[in-house]
Amino acid sequence: MLIAGNWKMNTDLPTARQLARAVISSVGKTRNVLVAVCPPLTNIDAVFSELHGSSVQLGAQNMLAGEFGAYTGEVSAPMLRAAGCRYVILGHSERRQYFHETNQIVNQKIQSAVASKLIPIVCVGESLEVREAGKAQDLVTEQLRTALDDVPIHSDVELVIAYEPVWAIGTGRTATPDQAQEMHAAIRAILVDLYGSETGRKVDILYGGSMNPGNAAELLSREDVGGGLIGGASLKAEEFAAIVHAAENAV
Ligand code: PEP
Fold first, then answer.
1. Is the CB of 231 under 6 A from ligand 1?
2. Pocket residue to mutate for ligand 1, from 95, 174, 210, 220, most atoms within 8 A of Cβ
3. How many angstroms separate the alpha carbon of residue 168 from the centre of ligand 1?
4. Is the pTM of this model over 0.70?
5. How many structural domains comprise the chain?
6. At 31, is the pLDDT very low, low, confident or very high (cuts 50, 70, 90)?
7. How many CA atoms lie within 13 A of 129 on its CB side?
8. Mean pLDDT calculated for residue range 94-120
9. What is the mean pLDDT of residues 5-30?
10. What is the extent of the structural domain holding 11?
11. What average pLDDT does the structure give for the chain?
């Protein structure tokens, strides 16, 4: 199980430091649950120092494929690794929507992250329109198979998937536990097909989309829901910690 907080474009230096400290003290020592926070890039260094000695890991929200070069404004996987990141969120729906990231671009980024031993949290998920047209599973299958094309994974701990229905992100509307489990099971079948049952059955598949302390326990109790990617609620340390504790009880 992994509970990861996506702080998006929401903290400055003092608030990032404060939030990191509050997360560490509210979460406490975790049992069987990995915890990570993904601050904005300008706060990575400061949050890394705050997290030192705690069990909370650091992640980034995006990167460019490649290592070094003339790509103004971008950072790469080796740079994030050197800055102390263990995870990187890739293919988030906001990146797909506002920055036109295609499945192919996401695939290149994942390859680059894995080559640098960064663990990608690969986001997939359908819009409301697609769900209502009954095509959610087809779209997620296409997103996942293209994103993972030629991505060599040798163990379950090298990869995390996040199912994030776009209609549930930041809307207060959550997938029902049955809707989440149905999609997670479909994702699980693809992972087993790609990586074999030993690895594919163990990769964490997070649910993301308005997860909060009120709905976390039920979602996390479902068989293939292996954690949460948390946006809004990750900005409030106590809410984030309550989700972590719900995950501990669900393991
Ligand atoms: C997200 O953007 O990854 C997310 C899950 O956001 P929220 O929890 O706010 O819906």
1. yes
2. 210
3. 8
4. yes
5. 1
6. confident
7. 0
8. 98
9. 97
10. 2-250
11. 97
